[in-house]
Amino acid sequence: MGKKLTLKEYIFIGSMLFGLFFGAGNLIFPIQMGQLAGANMVSATFGLLITAVGLPFLGIIAMGVSRKESLYELSSKISPSYGVFYTIALYLTIGPFFAIPRTATVSFEAGFAPYLSPGSLQIVLLIFSALFFGASLWFSLRPTEILTWIGKVLNPIFLVSIAFLIVFVLVNPMGRVNDIPVQEIYQEGALFRGFLEGYNTMDALAALAFGIIIISTIKTLGVTDPKQIAKDTMIAGLFSTSLMAVIYASLVYIGATSQAIFEVSPNGGVALAVVSNHYFGNFGAIVLAIIITAACFKTAVGLITAISEMFVTLFPNKLTYNHFVYIFTGISFGIANLGLSQIISLSIPVLMFLYPLAITLILVAIMSPLFKDKAIVYQMTTVFTLPFALLDFIHNLPTGFKETLQLDKVSLWATETIPFFEIGMSWVIPALIGLVIGWILSKKK
């Protein structure tokens, strides 16, 4: 019999996975969703948990069940060129283009910016992001220590800090949820709005990327049997995603009840700062800075490590792991200084394109033992999903950009013609059709 992990090892791996997942977006988006959803927060929360908790868990299971050791290996079932394209697109999105820069800007804008004068914001952001990414660089150059630092040090700091705030809110709530007004965007279809809000966390994309870190860590602990590795991956995933679900629901509740005494905030970072200040006064600034910075820093280190390891695999004999760490940390530092609002607005169309393709890839990978992992099922599902993901990308581009390229006509046509396009779900039926056709073809071959 091969080695099995101990309870202590399961907890450390689950803690590490939670630490990698739970970062910038995981704090700011649920709390703002709570503010907007108000009395409809239950439906919205359920939608959020599907994409922000359920899908990441399924992504972890997909990596274990399919026995693929990387996103590239999994997505190459569609074709090698598609595998390269999708892997690069996904890793750059959850890496230096959006998610990593966001870790620094969220830390700064929620934990520090409210207490600075407007004129000093840009220069202080520059200094803060330089220190933030300098520390991230140091840890990322020592990837063998990632389990220790994230699982044993940074994660407990974050959990204690966020638990402290959640307990205060639950003991002394700011208002009753049923009395909170619902903003227009959540008055109808709150479930679907919450579902799309979960895209912003990028966790389902991250699950496909972090799979290799979890599998590698399990192997270094002495587990060699593929079935046991798959089982251990699932157990670690269940631990981390359950913890995420509890914190998400708590943050949505905090956001909703905050409307009893505050107006809707421009973003979740501001809302978190206001709530923290309400309960703890000036001391709240310190608590919030610890929560935000610990959560974002551990995610930044995990992302830099994961993307650098993947690019070494994709482009062997080109650059070393350390070279990629320097490059991606430098790019992240530059983009972080554009500011949080700019980063979020630019990321939305990309996420609307990548997420349908990630969801279908995850679900087909989980079902792969049923059709003997035949490539035709992956291929047909993706071929039917891709055009609608591209339309979602076009629809969510900035208005001025769409008008310049005359893409607004395409967006209007899709809205008026394609079922469920307006709620971002137009790809679901085509994906199911592609899955069925692929499955039938797999039986005939």
TrEMBL record:
Q: How does it sit in the membrane?
A: Multi-pass membrane protein
Pfam families the UniProt entry points to: Branch_AA_trans
Q: Where in the cell is it found?
A: Cell membrane
**Annotated transmembrane regions:** 12-29, 41-62, 83-100, 120-141, 153-171, 204-222, 234-256, 285-312, 324-344, 350-370, 377-398, 418-441
Q: Which domain of life is it from?
A: Bacteria
- What is one process in the GO biological process aspect for this record? L-leucine transport
Q: Which GO terms describe its cellular component?
A: plasma membrane
Any one GO MF term held by the record is:
L-isoleucine transmembrane transporter activity
Q: Does the keyword RNA-binding apply?
A: no
The record's comment on protein family reads: Belongs to the branched chain amino acid transporter family.
* Protein name per UniProt: Branched-chain amino acid transport system carrier protein
Lineage from the top down?
Bacteria, Bacillati, Bacillota, Bacilli, Lactobacillales
Q: Which gene encodes it?
A: brnQ
